[in-house]
Amino acid sequence: MSQQVPEEQPPAEPPAPSSSEPPAEPPPGAHRAAQRRRPIVRQGPDWGGLLAATVFYWLSFTPSLLPRPWWLQVLAAAVTATIGYALGALIARVVRIWFTPSERLRHAAWWALGVAAPVAVVVTTAWSVTWQGDSRRAVGMDPRVTWWLWALVPPIAVLLCALLVVIGRSLRLATHAAARGLGRILPPRLAAACAVVVVTVLVIGLGQGFLQRGVLSVLESSARLANDSTSPGIVQPTLPTLSGSPSSLESWGSLGAKGRDFVGQARTRAQLTAFSGQPAMDPVRVYVGLRAAPTLAERARLAVAELQRTGAFKRKVLAVISTTGSGWVNQNLANPLEYMYDGDSALVAIQYSYLPSFVSVLTEDEAAHAGRALFDAVYAEWSSLPAATRPKLLLAGESLGSYATERAFDGSLDELTARAGGALLLGPTADNPLWQTVTNGRDSGSPMWLPIYQQGQKVRWGQVAADFGRPANPWPGPRVLYLQNGGDPITWWTPHLIVHRPGWLVGPRAPDVTGGMQWYPFVTFWQVTCDMLGADSVPVGHGHRFGTLPVAGWAAVAQPPGWTAAETARLEALLGQA
Q: Where are the transmembrane segments (predicted)?
């Protein structure tokens, strides 16, 4: 009997999934991996980023130290909103690790934001006119703003913010590309960390290289051209008491534009006599330009040689003035001493840079070296003279010049008052070492914007002349006086504003700082940064403008015998007409 072989059956097909069974879930991370494959730069906006950007846009309009013109508000709004977008996107990214909203919730959230954000932008821009009015009143300006210019702020700020976001996403794309390349030879997490470091180093390196070789080159070229110019009405002096004259050790051309302004505006004997009614002398003004000698030490020695040539060490008063970055000296800081002493005075300054102060601060510390070099050279000669015959030695500086003056003494009040007969410092910066010491060590109960230090025995502050009498205690001297406006962003700007509430916003405010100003992390830092650009665009007595207040300042620090308050007022009126 033959055995029957069973017929081969085709393989059974897998059973169709039951309609009651849920579809298979994709492997963990598959959705995020798909998202990562999308080009970063072309991804849609992040919901959390847009929400935070809208909030930060609103905060950028809140009052700060000074009123802002429309173009400055564009800059403040765009950069602040970009910071908000970055923070919001980061927070949203972290939140999505633990919580994934449903499609319905995401849809509703986008609709709500799409309606609320434009409304918030329009309402904030319109309402900010009230805030700006308050800020403008605080500094004595017309509270009204030009509506059609203010209406330009939202569209331009949004475009600029979008551009900044694209730049940020491009850097993210570069980081991801670097991580993929490094991932071929390194573990994934280490590759990601190294990619961040590489891109950061490249960005900083390229930025610094561009700044030094590109922007700084353009700025310095422009500054050199300006330094070669001569202001209208300024002519080479003929008096031997002035640098740049035919008798001078320094040529008229080597003084530079700021040096020519300084010596070319010296008070004449006739002007001084007309003011006092007494016979006057030709005042001494010595200035050494950047081109006069290659090093600071050589320029300082040349300045001393000029002082000796002009007989400056035989005058009643000798003031060492530290200049701003470009070599500028405020005439309202220089002129009063010549009037007060009937020309029996000498002023000396040297140039250490062509560049404006804000660029000099960012790129070099030449101001500190210049302040020390000049003072040490002058002091060495001055201290070798008989005490009974040498002049009263004074110090002066404005803004970066005040910083240079303080650095000549390593920020020591005792050393300054031991070696000089007094100092008048205008608009100090937050980096001034002595200013930091005495402000932070102020007597309890005195505000940061108008402090009292050790009962005013050596150093005092003032925004108006009446402040010099605070407190009503003796002020024997040598005296150090800061002219400091409560709303001066040059004085209050510091990186600490990013995360720390400043002391000048704690307790009573300065009279020119509106009560509507509040501190917000990141936001206030950028607002005050923008305020610095407009510090000289407000009325005298506010921002970084001091007008003729140095007249009363010098009268408080180095008043000559017989000088009266009436003469101070008369000199202020005279200089205020210039």
A: 47-66, 72-95, 107-127, 147-169, 190-211
